[in-house]
Design a protein that fits this description.
By secondary structure, the protein is α/β, with parallel strands linked by helices. The chain has three helices and six strands, in the order ββββααβαβ. Helices cover about 25% and strands about 15% of the residues. It has a two-stranded parallel sheet with strand order 1-2. Strands 3-4 form a two-stranded antiparallel ribbon. β5, α3 and β6 form a beta-alpha-beta unit. The longest helix has 18 residues.
């Protein structure tokens, strides 16, 4: 058995900092663990210096993809609240998040990347407003692109 994030059915999340740069600890694809070569992560979200509940009460700044994944889960909840026809339609919901993500072109991991997908950021940084707008109306014609790396 392989780690859950290495399966194609897993929607994996990379972590970015407040400036939108991929975190140093965030895994980059392709998946080599099982030789599948799958493209991962699927999308990125805030995962550095995230205010989180701390043991014993109170809050602390935490980091990790475990901080980023709940952001994406929240966007799914918002998306399904705004567009109930998508509830349970996992592939369609993922497609909306992927299409509405803020694109990041990254040249630090493999080839120059593309305006659509790269291994550090996936389809880009999750954008809650754009996802809901995309589901409720025609898709955005303009997606901002950020270029990183060198």
């Amino acid at each position: 058995l392989y780690p859950i994030g290495t399966y194609n059915a897993s929607y994996s999340v990379g972590a970015v900092n407040s400036g939108g740069a991929i975190a140093s600890f965030s895994s980059r694809g392709p998946v080599t663990y099982n030789g599948s070569g799958l493209s991962k992560p699927d999308i990125s979200a805030p995962g550095v210096a995230v205010h989180s509940a701390a043991p014993g009460g109170g809050y602390a700044l935490k980091q990790g993809t475990s901080m980023a994944a709940p952001h994406v889960t929240g966007v799914f909840a918002l998306l399904w609240s705004a567009y109930p026809a998508l509830i349970g339609q996992i592939d369609d919901s993922e497609a909306v998040l992927n299409a509405s993500a803020r694109r990041v072109i990254d040249t630090t991991c493999g080839p120059a990347g593309s305006p659509d997908y790269n291994h550090p950021y996936g389809w880009g940084s999750v954008d809650a407003l754009a996802a809901v707008q995309a589901a409720l109306g025609p898709p955005r014609l303009y997606l901002p692109v950020i270029i990183r790396g060198g």
